Amino acid sequence: MDNKYKYTYERTFDYCYKNTDVLINLLNITNDKDLYKAERELVALRISNFNDKPLKGDFDFNYLKSIHQYLFQDIYRWAGNIRSCNIAKKDLFCLSEHIESYAADIFNRLKSENYFINYDNNKTIDKLVELFSDINALHPFREGNGRSQRIFIELLAKINGINLDLTKVSKIDMISASHDSINGNYDKLRHIFKKNSKILSNKEKLENINIYCSENMKKLIIS
C-alpha cells in the first residue's frame, strides 16, 4: 500500500504492548504479522456467522458498535468501544473527544431522513455514499473501522432494496475513494457504489427489513 495512506496513531501505549506497535489482544500474540493473520481469520469467521445469524438493530451508533463488537470480540477486549486516541490516514479522523457528538449528528440525520426508505434508488445510493463518508471520517474504533462500516452500509442498502457488495473492491481503491470523499469529492465512491450494487425486488426489500431491523424500527419505516 502507498505509504501516504498508512495509519498514524497518538497514544499507542494505551493499546499496544510495551515498546511495540502490536495491539494488545486476547490471544496474547506479540508478532504483528501473526496478529494480522489471526485477526483476518477470526473476523472472517464472524462475518460468515453474521450472515447466517444477523444482528437486528435500529441502524444507529449503537448498532454500528454492536457490529464491531460482534466481529472483533474474539481478539480485542475493547471491541465495540470507541477509541481514546487520535488516528490519521493522510487525513485526520474525528478527534476522540468529539466522537460521541459527531456520531449523534450523523445518526440523528439518518433517522430524520427515515433511513432513506422513501427515496428513489439513485438518491438512496447518493445518500449511502455520503453516509459512508461521514462514518469513515468518524472512524470511531481503534481498529476494524472499514469492515464494520462496510457491513453497516451494506445492511442499510439491503433494507432499502439495494444489494450492495463492497467485498470485491480493492483496498487501495476504497482508501483512495474514501480519502477523496472526506475532502468533499464523492465521484470515486459513487462510482464504486453504483458499480457494485443491484436493485432488489420489493419482496426482497421487505424480507431484509424483517431480518435486520428491530421491531421499533420496522414500525417507523413501514408505517
Number of helices: 9
Number of strands: 5
Amount of beta strand: 5-15%
The major beta sheet can be summarized as:
3 strands, antiparallel
Q: Which sequence of SSEs, written as H and E, runs from N to C?
A: EHHEEHHHEHHEHH
CATH fold call: Fic-like fold
Termini distance?
47 Å
What is the 3D shape?
A: globular
Structure class: mainly alpha
Q: Uncertain runs with pLDDT below 50, 5 residues or more? A: none
CATH superfamily: Fido-like domain
Count of domains = 1
Mean pLDDT: 93
Rg calc? 17 Å
The CATH level-2 architecture is identified as Orthogonal Bundle
Strand neighbour order, sheet with most strands: 1-2-3
CATH class: Mainly Alpha
Helix content: 40-55%
Structure commentary:
Strands 1-2-3 form a three-stranded antiparallel β-sheet, with no helix packed on it. A two-stranded antiparallel ribbon has the order 4-5. The protein has one domain: Fido-like domain (Fic-like fold, Orthogonal Bundle), CATH 1.10.3290.10. It has helices at 32-52, 61-72, 99-112, 121-138, 145-159, 171-182, 187-195, 202-212, 215-222, and strands at residues 8-9, 87-89, 91-92, 162-164, 197-199. The protein is built from nine helices and five strands. The mean pLDDT is 93. The chain is mainly alpha-helical. Helix 3 runs antiparallel to helix 4 (121-138) and helix 6 (171-182) crosses helix 7 (187-195). The longest helix is centred in the N-terminal third of the chain and has 21 residues, at 32-52. The protein is globular. The chain is 54% helix and 6% strand.
